[in-house]
Amino acid sequence: MADIDIHNLPSFADLPVKDGAPPDSAWGVFGDDDGIGCVNLLTAEGVIKAAGLVTKGAIFRLDTKIAYADPPLFERKPTEHVVTKFPDFFAFDDMLNNYNTQEGAQWDGLAHVGHPSYEAWYNNTPIEEIYAGNEKLSIDKWSDKMVGRGVLIDVFKYRDDIGQPVDPGTTFEYTVEDLEAARQAQGVEINPGDILLVRTGWLQHYYNSTPEAKQGMGTMDGLESCGLHHGREMAAYFWDHHIAAVGTDCPAVETWPWKDFESESLHYRTLALLGLPIGEQFDLEGLAADSHSDGVYESMVVSVPMNLKGGIASPPNAVAIK
To answer: What pLDDT, in 10s, does the model give residues 39-52?
Structure first.
């Protein structure tokens, strides 16, 4: 990481900082050779402060169960769990055939999506480097770093509380104004280096859907989901709060399908331009219920992505601890 004060980063309006970098990009902010982007904002100081938030020992798993979606979303192949007897021992092994690291709850790594307009991934990484082993943007570089203060914003509940409920099974877009209003109603602050968790209501919608409806949601054309607004204002909100990552409970962070804004997708704005990890299909139900009960919307988040060299994405393997 470059020698930089995480509390004194350039504002979104000041981006880019590097000559020739795309507009609204953070290329070069953490150094020309950086491959972890906003993960740099998760510091030892932040870990210590996050540990101080643990007061009652309540633990909330943020991963969906493997193969929870039946069929898997986005027409991904289903995972097959195979249990085998270990030869000549009183023991078993098991295997996950066709396991896709993005079949359920997931962190999208910085190699997941490049920007088609600039034909590059984060920090001007060319596609040839991804094909050649993805050393620069590999998910294993996060495997001992994704720990910090988590902040939950339940924007789904907020909209319901003010009499403007959202149908999560539609392409409703939550705006920056929605997030800010929900945050203020909860009385929680967002600090540099935080892991932002946003409950959109989609996952509970999926859990409550019929098997027939889930069959339709497994197809590219049949899935509709609420999500965050895809625009520049949302990217600026994330960057100017200097969050380290954002995880949501919907399939794509932003709405799905992308429809007419594909070239301006939030995926491109976050992963490719800002180097900001985004998480999808996080299970925030238990954490949200507890937070509404005790009025505490901050926690220690511990996530250990797969230690997979060259990895593109990973289940979060995450818990929130209060």
So the answer is: 999 999 999 999 99
Q: Is there a contact between 6 and 41 (Cβ–Cβ < 8 Å)?
A: yes
Taking a C-beta distance cutoff of 8 angstroms, is the pair 183, 225 a contact?
A: no
Nearest partner of 291 among 62, 114, 104, judged by Cα = 62
Count the Cβ atoms, other than its own, within 10 Å of residue 237: 21
What is the distance, to the nearest Å, from the Cα of residue 296 to the centroid of all Cα atoms in its chain? Answer: 21
Distance CA 79, CA 73 (A): 12
Helix (H) / strand (E) containing 293: helix 285-294
pLDDT per residue as tens digits for the range 179-231: 999 999 999 999 999 999 999 999 999 999 999 999 999 999 999 999 999 99
pTM: 0.96
Pairing type for strands 195-199 and 106-108 reads unpaired
pLDDT in tens, 125-146: 999 999 999 999 999 999 999 9
* CA 23/CA 14 separation, integer angstroms: 10
Quickly name the fold that domain 17-74+97-321 has: Glucose Oxidase; domain 1 (3.50.30)
Residue 169 φ then ψ, to 5°: -85, 15
Q: Per-domain residue ranges for the chain?
A: 17-74+97-321
The residue assigned the tokens 């990890």 is 277
Straight-line distance from the first to the last Cα atom of the chain, in angstroms, rounded to the nearest whole number: 30
